[in-house]
Amino acid sequence: MIRLAPIAALGLLALTGCNQNTDPGNDRExxxxxxxxxxxxxxxxxALSGIATEAIQPETMSDADVASLGGMSGKCSLxxxxxxxxxxxxxxxxxxxxxxxxxxxxxxxxxxxxxxxxGGLRVELRPVDQEFGDDGRRxxxxxxxxxxxxxxxxxxxxxxxxxxx
Length: 165
Hints:
Blueprint: H1 4-15, H2 44-47, H3 63-68, E1 76-79, E2 86-90, E3 97-101, E4 104-110, E5 115-118, E6 121-127, E7 137-145, E8 153-161
Antiparallel strand pairs: 1-2, 1-8, 2-3, 3-4, 4-5, 5-6, 6-7, 7-8
């Protein structure tokens, strides 16, 4: 029994440092962490300059990104999952839209019903369901044509509108 005491003491000594975690976001007060910053806004030509268009995928916007766009009040979005954050936000089918690609928020001008474009980048939203459900969403497709890419990209998700249609 006496021989086990030093081993037990070493084990307890080793565990005393386990309650200290210096990694950001772990066991720290939220007020100490910096507030997230929104992605920068820029035109499509600048945002997609010098990157392989084959590697581009739409990204999910953060709360900070959405706030920098003025919030979601009165706007619609396309979300890649039913409960996820938006990847594309627009005022209405005839207004402006914003997509997040390559870590940048890219504003796109309306080019007609559900069509948006800027600097060789085009986005088209196509409803799968014709009517919005009681929860304010419907299934939709988002087709993306990237500058100099030989194929378009297609995604199916949920169009969510905070405004009444």
